[in-house]
Amino acid sequence: MRHLLSIADLDVADANMLLDTADELKKTLLGRQVRKLPTLRGRTVVTVFYENSTRTRVSFEIAGKWMSGDVINVSIGGSSVGKGESLRDTALTLASAGADCVIVRHPASGAAHRLASWLDQTGVAVVNAGDGTHEHPTQALLDAQTLRERLGELAGRRVAIVGDVLHSRVARSNVRLLTLLGAEVVLVAPPTLLPTGVGSWPVEVRHDLDSVLGGVDAVMMLRVQAERMHGGFFPSAREYAVHYGLNKRRLDLLPEHAPVLHPGPMLRGMEISSAAADSERSQVTEQVRNGVHLRMAVLYHLLAGEEAE
Description:
11 helices; Rossmann fold; single chain; 40% helix; 2 domains; alpha/beta; 9 strands; 5-stranded parallel beta sheet
């Protein structure tokens, strides 16, 4: 792998390679008091987040440090971006300063691809940590890792993705990855929160959540992204919760083996109730744990895989 910009860049073998490596890293570190591997010693990883983040940024930082890499977080508020520096100049500055990998989150769809095109000749790897409403590939991969742990192989499994699909890069990456791995995906949302052209996606589209839950192997709730909304997409938060929130009653409609996922942050009481978020079915904290190992796997294959092999 040269970069990780989109799930579309992966084939089945690539996806399984990353998931298998994440599983092996998780087993290797299990029970260790000192969670350190020498894999990225001498490598420099820089995170550049133009949008707020807790889970993604922290897990990439921990992943790099657990592999003995030097991890540097660029604070946009305290960088030259605040003086008007362009994304291109920021990228070339980081490459010139010695970065081996740049992990970027940006509000503009396609920003990670532009960054990679500018850095292609420098040897610096780029990881897309979320670009606008386009994609979030490492989130989809850690979700797939979590589902594999609970369900085994994903081929033939049916996964419901519920909520604000329109503004969700997580949904787009998950649709691509889950269908690549042979799963069936059903999107459940009000018509106002579905993208134009969703009929051409390899998914089933439904609007009635109750009618779907009894026939799925897993359900993934999405955050309602109010910061990306301009106008009224649904009458009220209460109305949304009534029709599309995962509450205790709906939790009981799921088959016994079906886990509940959420990429976070969770809006409790709106898209998911505390009873569902804190239930035994909930894999939310396991997703966060798996995020560290999955992102370790990504950094390994970008920066150390060929040398190790």
